[in-house]
Amino acid sequence: MNEADSELAAADFAARGYELTDDLKKADAVVVNTCTVRQQAENRALSQLGRLEGWKAAREGRKLFVIGCAAERLGFGTLRHKFPFIDGVIGAKALDGLSEELDKHLPPAAGETTPSNIFNSPLSAYVTVMRGCSLKCTYCIVPSVRGPAAFLPEEEVLQQVRRRVEAGAREIVLLGQTVNAWREGERRFEDLLDSISSVPGVLRLRFMSPHPIYFTPAWLRAYAENPAVARHIHLPVQSGSDRILKSMRRGYTAAEYLGTLEKIRKADPDTVFSTDFIVGYPGETKEDFEKTLELVRRGRFGFAFCFKYSPRPGAPAKDAPDITDAEMRARLARLLEEVKKTGGGIFAERIGRIEEVLVESARRGKSSSNFNCRLDRECAPGSLVRVEVTGTAKTELSGKVLP
Ligand code: SF4
User: Fold this and answer.
1) Per the omega criterion (within 30 degrees of 0), is the bond before 209 cis?
2) What distance in Å separates the CA atoms of residue 273 and residue 169, rounded to the nearest whole number?
3) Which of 39, 73, 144, 261 is most buried, judged by most C-beta within 10 A?
4) Is the pLDDT at 394 greater than 90, yes or no?
């Protein structure tokens, strides 16, 4: 979400005639987009701001803006008190007001521009379909800093998709905190996937992050029938213990989560899953943690993002973890090892399969199952090719392009 918001911010600058630069010395303005989901992320953003004091003072007229979730949580007063050289603060809930805020400091916008793909391949574009979240997972600060769920109207989403395709995108990545909860009147997420995949030029659709409670039989049918929807799904689980899942207010049990994976695999057995885990949530015992390891073995994930629990002010569960940091690190290491083991197996199993690959450069592309893929001959970037996987190297598949 922050990457997509950074792209929107860059578009606001582009509309004022600014260009992106990686060279701080050349920059006339800097936007620090902040995250507060873990304390460490917020600390890093704040130290980045501290380091920019010298940059700001080195040339008159330079502007510094802070946006995002930590900006929302801390607010203008706190940030300006700590860093008096900041020009503007725009919190995550007020991002729509960024353009107006920039108008106060910079020449006004000459027109609207389409965000460019700063973080992805030029062929892959983010499109945000919802903002905020109305669920109440106890460890999570997102509802407090981004507000309740608000869905973008379908027509607005389609307009964005068309603009991104005109600018060269072939893959659209739909974003939202509970992206598959999207709805508008009678329209549901599967309808949105169908209408976006009918936009000429859209070859592939991804979405992040769905929530296990929003997969319906209608969605499963649509998934089975719509090959444009990528065969990789990132489905956060957080824990394998029912006791911890209940305490986190996730709304499902481990068996229900695994049941959802099974239903999706039934709709397309080729689907690759990834997930998120939190270790050391308050009350997590050794037995709870063993259940998480068991879920890794049964869920068979291609990869997982694993984090140590970080208590957040503003989240319902503010308690510190019950275990020592050493124990938390030990659990994290064991979890990562287990994920690596099953992930390695999933990767190796791709050999011999036929993958649909979106070509990104002459000899490289990304499979629908989200693996980087090396091709045995040159293909046109932006095209879809069928590839027989003949080998793996580090994190990449290699294969033969089929006629
Ligand atoms: S679903 Fe839960 S974890 Fe995800 S943003 Fe909403 S409250 Fe946070």
Assistant:
1) yes
2) 24
3) 261
4) no
Of 93, 139, 142, best ligand 1 pocket probe by most atoms within 8 Å of the beta carbon: 142
CA distance 394 to 386: 21
Say if residues 297 and 326 touch (Cβ distance below 8 Å): no
Residue 379 Cβ < 6 Å to ligand 1: no
Give pLDDT tens digits for 229-266.
999 999 999 999 999 999 999 999 999 999 999 999 99
Among 11, 2, 6, residue whose Cα is nearest residue 115: 11
Q: What share of the chain is helix, strand, coil (3-state, %, to 5)?
A: 40, 20, 35
The DSSP code sequence of 16-43 is TT----S-GGG-SEEEEEE--SSHHHHH
Cα 12 to Cα 188: distance, rounded to the nearest angstrom: 31
Three-class secondary structure of residue 60 per DSSP: coil
CA of 140 to the centre of ligand 1 (A): 6
What is the topology classification, in CATH, of domain 2-105? Rossmann fold (3.40.50)
Q: How does pLDDT run across 323-372, given as a tens digit for each residue?
A: 999 999 999 999 999 999 999 999 999 999 999 999 999 999 999 999 99
Task: Name which of 5-14, 104-113, 210-219 the model is least confident about.
Answer: 104-113
CA of 165 to the centre of ligand 1 (A): 30
> What SS3 class is residue 186?
coil
According to CATH, what is the number of the domain 120-230? 3.30.750.210
Calpha distance 205→207 (Å, rounded): 7
